[in-house]
Amino acid sequence: MPTLGQNQYGKAETRVVRIVRDGAVHHIKDLNVSVALSGDMDEVHLSGSNANVLPTDTTKNTVYAFAKEHGIASPEQFGILLARHFVTGQDAIHTARIRIEEYGWERIETAGAARHSFVRTGQETRTAQITFDGERWEVISGLTGLTVLNSTDSEFWGFVKDEYTTLPEVRDRVLATDVHARWRYGWCSDGDGDGDDGGEPAPDWERGYAGARDDLLAAFAETYSLSLQQTLYQMGARVIENRPAIDEIRLSLPNKHHFLVDLEPFGLKNDNEVYFAADRPYGLIEATILRDGVRPRIATD
Ligand SMILES: O=c1[nH]c(=O)c2[nH]c(=O)[nH]c2[nH]1
């Protein structure tokens, strides 16, 4: 009979978001936790007996319950708690390997922002598309991967309900999205590319980018949201109002759902603290916002 070699099992990539609400100031911890357990697991492989198997589903639940009970001080400390729990709690489990990725969030610091708005660090990409037909320029600038989250001031209710609707109405939810924005400058020149011979100096691209990015963040943070659609319009409108050089902006916003984890089975109350951050499927909300009288030119795909 072939020999069973090293083996391990557990739930991979449990996405847990823990929000601590210190009055109006909120703090966020966002982890991706993978549990791998090993020990006396010959029987489950060889005879199919599950007598030593703590289900992977239980390891996932433990991550959520521990996030509530112990909080998340650091990934190391959280991983130590989990590993100790599995190894000391189950005779058959001899080794627990806990891998954790922590995603960083910075507070959005704009004049009008509350203390519950965050932007994820280090993922953003700046984009530019330049088209020239010998006469006219079209410059579309943008960004992708600007991930933002409001831990309150978001509701969703009053929507259409048909025979397939199960979504409960909510008066307080997490609103998170990866901003994908493209904005088109009104600027065009007469063709030699120096940007000023047509009488129209080229915009300051650096300031345009920084300004539009600030506007998007500020509007996201400052909007009390009744839907992501409403937040989207506010974000686009802020750019159009504040940046005269920009005529059109196209926003594509995935609704990165955060579902409250039911901790009742473990005797714990989840007071909007522990969330499952789902990656798919996601709502996708898209729209173009235009300066009055301008014709849309940014592709809608
Ligand atoms: O902001 C939202 N807009 C929707 O259209 C929608 N649909 C849904 O299921 N959740 C949400 N949230």
Automatic annotation (TrEMBL):
Catalysed reactions, semicolon-separated: urate + O2 + H2O = 5-hydroxyisourate + H2O2
Enzyme Commission number(s) from the entry: 1.7.3.3
Enzyme class: oxidoreductase
A Pfam family that the UniProt record links to this protein: Uricase
Pathway in which this enzyme or protein is active: Purine metabolism; urate degradation; (S)-allantoin from urate: step 1/3
The keyword Aminoacyl-tRNA synthetase belongs to this UniProt entry's keyword annotation: no
GO molecular function list: urate oxidase activity
Family annotation (SUPFAM superfamilies): Tetrahydrobiopterin biosynthesis enzymes-like (SSF55620)
Keywords attached to this entry: Oxidoreductase, Purine metabolism
Nucleotide-binding listed as a keyword: no
Family: Belongs to the uricase family.
Chain's role: Catalyzes the oxidation of uric acid to 5-hydroxyisourate, which is further processed to form (S)-allantoin.
Protein name, per record: Uricase
Organism ancestry: Bacteria, Bacillati, Actinomycetota, Actinomycetes, Kitasatosporales
